[in-house]
# Entry
Amino acid sequence: MANEEFSLTTAQVAAQRQGYKYCPQCRTPMVDKFVFGRTRRVCPNEECHFVQFIDPKLTTAVMPLKGDKVLMVKRTMEPGRGSWCFPGGFMETGETPQQCAIRECKEETGFDIEITGLIDVFYYEDYRGSGVVIMFKGEVVGGEVVLNPVESEAVGFFAIDELPEPIAFESNIQSLAAWRAGKI
Ligand SMILES: [Zn+2]
# Structure
């Protein structure tokens, strides 16, 4: 996708997700100010001048394959509630992207995977702000279905010509298209 399709301004991202209302250093109300090349959240206290850099969230996801089928999850939460997607979730400090993908797959489906490759890296913007999705390819090596009622309403293995609908997320749709085209 072209960059001009991404439309959130810094102020929108700040308002929607992570913009500090008060300075975390000195508690002064933060303001929007043009510094370091774009509008950012800045502490106007001249003795502080804390600048907030609002980073994209990092998500890992995995396309877990078993033979000619792919493991997918039916979502219980927005965004994409009621739609199907690959296991995945937000990275936390102290784990690698690969460990995150393996952990999320286990939590959401009960299955153990090995990471077998990198499919692509995607960027998105939505009402939560901006994010990067690291999409791995994986192989199911063990485990059995364990539904996590908080995160997954159902899980299933699907062949390319019997995929469930609807599919959530552009990263998932594009990865499935690549799989269908024989590129994965
Ligand atoms: Zn401050």
Q: What stands out?
A: Residues 23, 25-26, 28, 43, 45, 48, 50 surround zinc ion (CB under 6 Å). The chain has two domains: 17-54, 57-180.
